[in-house]
Amino acid sequence: MYTNDILAWSADMQGISAMSRFALKEETEAFAAEVAKLTVPRYASHWRDRVERLWDDVWKRGIEERTASTQKLYASKFRTAVRNALEEEEQRTKRRQRVEAAVLSIVRIDPAITAKLQEDYQAKVKAENADLVLVPEWEWLVKTFEAMLEDDDMELRALAIMALTGRRFAEVLQAGEFEPFVEHSSSGTVRQKWLLKFSGQLKTKSGPETMFGKSYAIPTLAPARDVLSAFRGMRASAAGRIWKSAPERQLSTTFNPDFNRKLRTCPAAKFWPKDQPLSLKELRALYAEIAYVNFAPRTTRAPFYARILGHGDEDLTTALSYMRYSLSRQAMKEGQEEMNRLTLLREKRREDAIAAKQADEDLIEP
């Protein structure tokens, strides 16, 4: 009976894997070759039952005890191997398509596992993504920070620069530099009203996709000329010179708490949403949303946030960390939908990366 060839194939594979937990590459190749033998050039006797038994054997030996995401990845590798084998062995396109559809209806992950993965993702999204905070008086916040650019109190002036440029505390006080954004053309030069060139990016990994070590354009929430003037005046002041030369530890342990306290009592604080935390980091998050509403081309938030904050376009975790505020009810709905989409995508990437790493390991027992 055909049970014998199943047992023989399984014994062969156990021999191949005698020194390994589950040699995925060899397993997929051998499985696909056996499937091709059973279906090309014509269907073998009881081919469906035999493929089902082969798949059941593989599942129990190497897939069943793994996580759902790894099960999904392994199943996809076996399906790919089957497609490749049939493409090589069966030259008749229409028959190959029929055979492939028939075989892949067997070689697949249980739909319940896929549904469970999706359910887990959705639950994680719901747990992580609290509702966005509505900022109804955001225009008053911007106007107040703009007025603070001319304040004689250099702490207030520095806070205004952080709020209106979205740059970090240490970037404004020490590491960063701003320059006019000037475009040259055959008809002359144009100094952009709402853009500055910024350099001195902190905290990003120095990969090619980030703006670490580079100069790039950022939108400003007040006229760029006014922001630049306030920045230069602040840096030239006595306080500015102290901040600029302060050791990193003093900047973070002494000056940072002082600035956070100042922010919570500054003139703009009365326009901040009630019962919501107000800190220097929150200024950066609100800046990103205001800049998106006022300056973004037809794009979603994540790539625009990444561009103006100096992060990599594919850095979903960072994009999500700054999606906290909304300027209107409609924007709140759109922002929440995008947060959910990005969280699902991020979690899928994480699960796939973990599963792929496991699949690519040598798996040879010591």
What's a quick, concise take on this entry?
With 366 residues, the chain is mostly helical. The chain has helices at 3-16, 24-39, 47-63, 68-89, 93-104, 111-128, 138-148, 154-165, 169-175, 224-236, 238-245, 248-265, 280-295, 301-309, 316-322, 329-360; strands at 133-134, 177-185, 188-199, 216-219, 325-326. The protein has 3 domains: 24-109; 124-135 and 273-365, no CATH class; 150-267, Telomere resolvase (hpI Integrase, Chain A, Orthogonal Bundle), CATH 1.10.443.30.
Quickly list its features:
16 helices; three-stranded antiparallel beta sheet; 8% strand; 5 strands; hpI Integrase, Chain A; two-stranded parallel ribbon; mainly alpha; 3 domains
What does this 3D model show about the protein?
With 366 residues, the protein is mainly alpha-helical. It folds into three domains: 24-109; 124-135 and 273-365, no CATH class; 150-267, hpI Integrase, Chain A (Orthogonal Bundle). It is 63% helix and 8% strand. It has 16 helices and five strands. The protein has helices at residues 3-16, 24-39, 47-63, 68-89, 93-104, 111-128, 138-148, 154-165, 169-175, 224-236, 238-245, 248-265, 280-295, 301-309, 316-322, 329-360, and strands spanning 133-134, 177-185, 188-199, 216-219, 325-326. The strands form two sheets. Strands 2-3-4 form a three-stranded antiparallel β-sheet. α2 (24-39) packs across α4, α4 runs antiparallel to α5 (93-104) and α8 packs across α13. The longest helix is centred in the last third of the chain and has 32 residues, at 329-360. The model is unreliable at 15-20 and 362-366 (pLDDT under 50).
